[in-house]
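Closing statement on the magnesium ion sub-project.
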Amino acid sequence: MSSSAFICMSQLYAPTLREDPQEAELASHKLLLRAGFIRKMASGLYAYLPLAWRSLRKIEQIVREEMDATGAQEMMTPILTSAEFWHQSGRWDDYGPELMRISDRHDREFCLGPTHEETFVDLVRNELRSYKQLPCTLYQIQDKFRDEMRPRFGLLRGREFIMKDAYSFHADRESLQKTYDDMYRAYGKICERCRIEYRPVEADSGQIGGKVSTEFMALADAGEAELVYCDCGYAADVEAAEAKPVLTICNAASCEKVLTPGCGTIEDVANFLHVPQNETVKAFAVTAGDGQGFVLFVPGDHEVNEVALDHLFGNWHLMTEEELEANDLVKGYIGPKDISSKVKVIADTSLQAQHKWICGANEPGYHLVGAEAGADFDIPRYGAIAAAQAGDLCPECGLPLKAARGIEVSQVFQLGTKYSDAMGATFMAEDGSEQPFIMGCYGVGVSRMLAAIVEQYNDENGICWPVAIAPYEVAVIPLSVGDDLLDPLARKIAYELHDAGIEVVLDDRDERPGVKFADMDLMGFPYQIVIGKKSAAQGQVEVKTRATGEREIVPASEVVALLAEKIIAQRA
Ligand code: ATP
Ligand code: MG
């Protein structure tokens, strides 16, 4: 796929920085800035300099090839989308301040597309008329705009970023499932060809809606997403996973009220009572959007799943001190027995197995040990409200789950008829009736992927690009310039590599070797050919593999063939 390229370092627009930029916390953000790949133009807005652009084009090309292989058709729609469609879908109001809105000179409203469901539904609703034209999958690779609350981490969360977005239209669910499965496989291949270590995880489908969704997570400690996974192959975003906590069953003979002075947290209570935290029960007091107070009980070693609460309550927040007081709740000592009638109670499903609870006594300074469900208190409602964590049981095989962090690089959704219903997009079915399109949508964060790759491929000296994504594959580094022997040899090797279809940077700068080595390591080209005076006189050069630091002395006459073979084998 690679089109060969050649550039001299003296000409390359890749301004490097000596120091780590202050605003950058993550390796990818720091290194892409320092190595001269990107420049910040404003908060969340970046210029992709030539090196980044070359790597981005490689990612795009991989995405394009895998999309084309599924039969999806590439096209392009305007970034500016009319508010009219967004009103029809209901998202003009739902999307909130993340949607970048503008008006034209006639005061007509538009937004800069954060995703393009509306555009594509509008496009096909008048033109895909019959089931005979289905299924149909269309895609584009385009800049998207989201006025993120916290644009940060460089390309990982920009306000303008490159996305591949695809939309599929179907006559029935089976057809959607088939395309979804094809896309799922294609997304796996995209990650593999980009050399991203990833896991597909069950996802919450968030703003876009629909029922079935998978996120592809690049594994990275810097990732914002928390996942749980199992060796059996199960993996889920903690937000989407149904927790199966392991409890220690409480065997207290009777219900006792115990003075627990200064035990405001579960940890304090468990330590004080000499019981494990998972034998206790933790309470969260929240106020739902309509003002109703709720007390939520989960196993003591767990947190609540905030996304589950979003689904339950829409808007909600943890109760303030005033709200706790107004609802007659005692901070740190909330329990189900004789709880204030002003609040409603929900307990996590797992607590159905805990007949006797260690919990707050609704009295300052006191806990109950052995309060019995059904006798001392009643739980009117159970639900899946605890957040999954490492050590919980795998819902598929029952073994303990492990936890990891990830960067969401792409996501596939089965949308169903959400948008076609809202926007009145129908086709004529085989029986002659008008039916709404059944839809899927599929997004790849192309620019986020670039940063995710850097997160996975870096060391203390800089980036270590996999060949498949590297902006150039080889750096040729003569250790001095203007030398009668080195100059022609370096140029000869560089030109021959270029002729062999390899992408080459020739470091022709009149700089000290230390400066050249540091820059080449920072930029991370996969192979360096170092040409020194002494070895050149003996017809030898040194080949350094950036990722491993391995060095090899090779006859100058063989280096091109040797590297060309290695590199071509590693291309995407
Ligand atoms: P997140 O949860 O990280 O905000 P999202 O789930 O809202 O992302 P999608 O609507 O699924 O994002 O968009 C498809 C893909 O676009 C994501 O998988 C991600 O790779 C990329 N993406 C989304 N928001 C951004 C952003 N602000 N900057 C860079 N890439 C992004
Ligand atoms: Mg997503």
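Residues 50-70 form the longest helix (21 residues). With this model delivered, the sub-project is considered complete and its resources will be redirected to Aim 3.
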